[in-house]
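Sorry to interrupt, but I need a hand with the structure work. Could you add the entry underneath, on a fresh line?
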Amino acid sequence: MEDMYREVILDHYKNPRFKGELDPADISYQDDNPLCGDMIRIDLRVDENNRVVECAFSGQGCAISQASASMLMEDIQGKSLEEIKEYSRDDILDMLGIELGPVRLKCAMLSLKVLKVGAYGVQEWIEE
């Protein structure tokens, strides 16, 4: 079973979904993992109900960081910012489907961190 998940990860790494940048974007945030050099930027467009209508990610890094960003972009299509704020470490691990050590876990969580910081930042701006 783990081999199947590894194939899915490699497919997302080699053929990323939603790779690119949105200009203009309603939400744009990027961060990196200084320990390994992975970098992820996520751009979102949201509608009047704060639902994701378009998303993209860009960056560089290992297969785990890039695949998790690709999988996450697939999953958030049509979700609200409130739903995005509920995403957790377990959601990313479920998408990846394999056990990760501490170093790889940081790689996998980078896209979630970037997404959530962006979602919280824009939500505060919208409510002001």
